[in-house]
Known about the structure:
Number of domains: 1
Shape: globular
CATH topology: Aminopeptidase
Number of helices: 5
CATH architecture: 3-Layer(aba) Sandwich
Number of strands: 9
Amino acid sequence: xxxxxxxxxxxxxxxxxxxxxxxxLNKDYESxxxxxxxxxxxxxxxxxxxxxxVLKEQLKELREPSGFGAWIIARKEDxxxxxxxxxxxxxxENGVIDIGYGFVKSQRRKGYGYEAVKALxxxxxxxxxxxxxxxxxxxxNIGSIRILQKVGMSEVKRDNEMIYWEMINK
Length: 170
């Protein structure tokens, strides 16, 4: 991965490394501090801990993050980690990647979600092997619905629980 981070107006997005994942799994947040980040009280979300072992195994095989995994989202002003986002793996045989994200409650409704998702989508669409980005969200998750609409994703399907979205690379 040539670009090690994405910098937006108010955010810094950095791919998780093997070392960072191991530190978080060990609840060693001092290591994040040594890298210049501050961990907020409510990050990482308990659901993210379920994903960390999978991410650890993926990163163990790579020398460096590919960008198609998880990213830390930090506020530029103080490097406070306010969430995580990323793709759920390498593009499939059709060039499709799936984006997901989560933010700490105290930092929602401030435009950070839109800013981070927009930046990651831009990065994803710039990759040669990406033809489409997909996402899904709960049908009652108004915040995610607004973010996905605002970044230009199109709703393609919904069921009783989920809404499914896509953006085709032109």
